[in-house]
Specification:
This protein is α/β, with parallel strands linked by helices. The protein is built from 11 helices and 8 strands.
Length: 336
């Protein structure tokens, strides 16, 4: 079998602290895989700048000038991690036999890419990177993640447990993925639907090499809701939150009113009436919010707006531009 052309897609958002080390380690791994005759010398590293506000693009661009295997795609604005990942996958598919997606923070063990490629040689078209355990996560994140996977499984959604977006996909798999035209693709749920021959490779997740996480609690909650409903509408979610709060407050007030009833400080019938009003009101707001999530999903799908807009694509250019874009020079001057 001829050595396949591999492209490693790395979505980046404000990763200036870790990116130089990420580039160094991935370049070293690429050279090793070429020497082992697992991948072609035409294999590349594709970094997607998701509208970063620091010098992330400057680092990517300069690396592309020094190393021909390093390429970059710059989005015109911050479109989000999943959209940036899709931009990289779709840009790379025309010049790759297989594509690996990995985050820039070096928490995922890059040496596992070797196992991904070996599985690709065995005929697997999708290879999932699955965490052995989540020791590097906080107690809260670890247990909420487990709850999320269990909830998705209960609703019949096919997810690979403890798998994020660290995976290998064949060109054919990416081409089929591009046929899914939803405005907001939840990749962890969509990729298993492709149905191609797949397997998993297990690894231990590391601590973040440098910088701060780009997924605080607010984003994790939003991501989970997107996975359940495939869309997020903030105002409607706010209504849902009010509904949940009203429901739980009604329970507290119900207990308080029962206490008043038993101590003889209220009139007959008042307790059941006020408790039912609070309870039903909260449940109605929850229902309206959940229905609104799906209406919001339909609303966004009907607009058919592009998922992302590419500002500069160095991957499909014959060579890098001999100058830095104006905004990059400005960022560099600010850094000085």
């Amino acid at each position: 079998m001829t050595e396949p052309i591999l492209t490693v897609v790395v979505p980046c958002y404000n990763e200036e602290e870790v990116l130089p080390e990420t580039i160094r380690q991935l370049r070293a791994l690429r050279d090793q895989l070429i020497n082992e005759r697992l991948i072609s010398v035409q294999s590349t590293l594709l970094f997607v700048d998701d509208g970063s506000r620091d010098t992330t693009w400057t680092i990517i661009y300069k690396a592309s000038l020094h190393y021909p295997e390093v390429k970059g795609v710059k989005l015109s604005r911050n479109a989000g991690h999943q959209q940036a990942l899709l931009a990289g996958l779709f840009a790379a598919k025309t010049r790759s036999d297989c594509i690996v997606s990995i985050d820039a923070d070096l928490q995922d063990d890059i040496s596992v890419i070797r196992e991904f490629v070996k599985k690709f040689h065995e005929g697997y078209e999708i290879v999932y990177g699955v965490r052995n355990r989540r020791d590097t996560d906080t107690f809260f994140k670890r247990h909420t993640a487990q709850w999320f996977y269990q909830a998705m499984k209960a609703m019949g959604v096919q997810l690979v447990y403890n798998h994020a977006d660290y995976r290998l996909m064949s060109r054919r798999a990416v081409e089929e993925l591009e046929r899914f035209e939803e405005a907001n693709l939840f990749l962890r749920g969509i990729v298993p639907l492709l149905g191609f021959r797949s397997t998993a490779v297990f690894y231990d997740r590391k601590e973040r090499f440098a910088g701060k996480t780009k997924y605080p609690l607010k984003k994790m909650i939003a991501f989970a809701l997107d996975g359940i409903t495939s869309f997020s509408i903030t105002p409607i979610r706010f209504i849902s939150l009010i509904g949940f709060l009203s429901f739980f407050v009604s329970i507290l007030f119900g207990a308080y009113f029962l206490f008043l009833k038993f101590t003889g400080h209220t009139q007959t019938g008042w307790t059941s009436l006020i408790t039912s009003i609070w309870l039903l009101g909260g449940l109605q707001l929850i229902a309206f919010g959940l229905i609104g999530e799906y209406i919001g999903k339909i609303y966004k799908e009907t607009k058919r707006r592009p998922r992302y807009i590419i500002d500069l694509d160095l991957f499909n250019l014959p060579k890098a531009l001999p100058f830095l874009p104006e905004e990059t020079n400005v960022a560099e001057r600010k850094q000085r």
